[in-house]
Specification:
Elements (H helix, E strand, L loop, with lengths): L8 E6 L2 E6 L2 E2 L10 E11 L2 E7 L8 E6 L5 H17 L10 E7 L4 E6 L4 E3 L8 E5 L6 E3 L2 E3 L4 H7 L8 E5 L5 H14 L9 E4 L1
Parallel strand pairs: 3-7, 4-6, 6-7, 9-14, 10-13, 13-14
Antiparallel strand pairs: 1-2, 4-5, 7-8, 11-12
Length: about 210
């Protein structure tokens, strides 16, 4: 399987019908090249007044890297449950499991003019509020700054703020995302986290969507 060529709108021709995925955009590439991959698509569709996340994983192979091409217009409340199902299927298939295979979200780098990828293999999602006792950074729909209690801070200052507090007992640091924010907004937040909190992200494998 070969590397994707650049397209901001991914087109899929299935059963004679053209379908498209509008990708999120950013101005930086976290990962530029993914070899030996399987594409999975989550389309934005409507039925009456309802929005639907329509999954196409016909070409997915468990032992390969999975690239999820998800329409940027979809809200997290529809996207993440489908991502959870895909993760569970891949993690449960021990017969074909490849320990080196990763999962990536795709997006368009509008500056470099290339398709880029964001790894999320180690992330476990929960569609609920974090329990009490956790130190929660809340990413809200339509807001650039992160909410911590009653204080708004920049994503770049998350660790600085966390380590400036003298805890009697250091709590778990968790990220909570508004379930109604768009997938594009979520990806943009995640890219900033990769940039500013990358050293500690592997220690924060659980993300809450509520």
């Amino acid at each position: 399987m070969k590397y994707f060529s650049l397209i901001f709108i991914i087109l899929l021709f299935s059963c004679g019908k053209k379908e498209d995925v509008l990708l999120p955009k950013s101005n930086v590439s976290i990962v530029k090249d993914v070899q030996d991959h399987s594409p999975i698509y989550i389309f934005f569709k409507t039925e009456g007044k309802d929005t639907i996340a329509d999954v196409n994983r016909k070409n997915s192979i468990i032992s390969t890297n999975w690239i999820l091409n998800i329409d940027k217009r979809l809200p997290l409340r529809l996207v993440i449950p489908e991502v959870i199902k895909l993760q569970e299927k891949k993690r449960a298939d021990s017969a074909h499991k490849n320990e080196n295979a990763e999962n990536y979200y795709s997006y368009a780098d509008s500056i470099g003019k290339n398709l880029a990828f964001l790894p999320f293999t180690k992330v476990y999602y929960k569609m609920e509020k974090p329990t009490r006792g956790n130190f929660v950074f809340y990413f809200r729909k339509g807001k650039e700054q992160v909410l911590m209690g009653n204080m708004e801070i920049k994503t770049s200052e998350i660790l600085k703020y966390f380590y400036s507090i003298k805890f009697q007992k250091v709590p778990d640091l968790v990220f909570l995302f508004d379930k109604n924010m768009s997938y594009e907004e979520y990806i943009q937040h995640k890219i900033l986290l990769q940039k500013y909190v990358t050293y500690n992200l592997d220690k924060l494998p659980v993300e809450f969507i509520f």
